[in-house]
Automatic annotation (TrEMBL):
Lineage: Bacteria, Pseudomonadati, Pseudomonadota, Gammaproteobacteria, sulfur-oxidizing symbionts
Pfam families: YiiD_C (PF09500)
Name of the protein: Thioesterase
Residue ranges of domain Thioesterase putative in the record: 4-146
Cross-referenced InterPro entries: HotDog_dom_sf, YiiD_C
Length: 147
């Protein structure tokens, strides 16, 4: 839980938008990071979550996953999003919940080995925004970490 509080503190201090969106770190462990944000500060004219807010929570969930992995492995670096694709599948008229889960340890292992060797590495992540037990948004992002 301490690492989740640290991650949330970093988000709120390094990326001020996360405070305005009221993003919270709901879960973080070795394989999964989950961010949430209430509807109210992220609402649009249709009383659903603004598409830009959904995108932002998703991209930040991936960023948070990479940041958390770097912290777990005592590494530092600059994390940036290089490329992304997003599919908006369903409207969200409640809490925004984004989940980044990596079940293939080989992907992470290759990423970490490359970063150790070159000081630069890329990782492709999939983030889902879930609502009422269904995928409301599917985000695929390529993140780069460099020294």
């Amino acid at each position: 839980m301490k690492s989740c509080k640290h991650l949330q503190s970093v988000l709120h201090s390094e990326i001020p938008l996360t405070r305005a969106m009221e993003i919270s770190v709901a879960h973080c462990d070795v394989n999964r990071v989950e961010l949430t944000a209430p509807l109210e500060p992220n609402i649009n004219h249709k009383c659903t979550a603004f598409g830009g807010s959904l995108y932002s929570v998703a991209v930040l969930c991936g960023w948070s996953f990479v940041f958390h992995q770097m912290k777990l492995h005592n590494l530092t670096g600059h994390i940036v999003i290089q490329h992304s694709e997003v599919d908006y599948l369903l409207p969200v008229d409640g809490e925004i919940r984004a989940v980044c889960e990596l079940n293939d340890s080989n992907v992470l292992s290759r990423f970490l080995k490359t970063y150790h060797r070159k000081g630069l590495a890329r990782i492709k992540l999939e983030i889902k925004v879930l609502f009422n037990g269904k995928d409301a948004l599917l985000f695929r992002g390529h993140y780069v970490v460099h020294q």
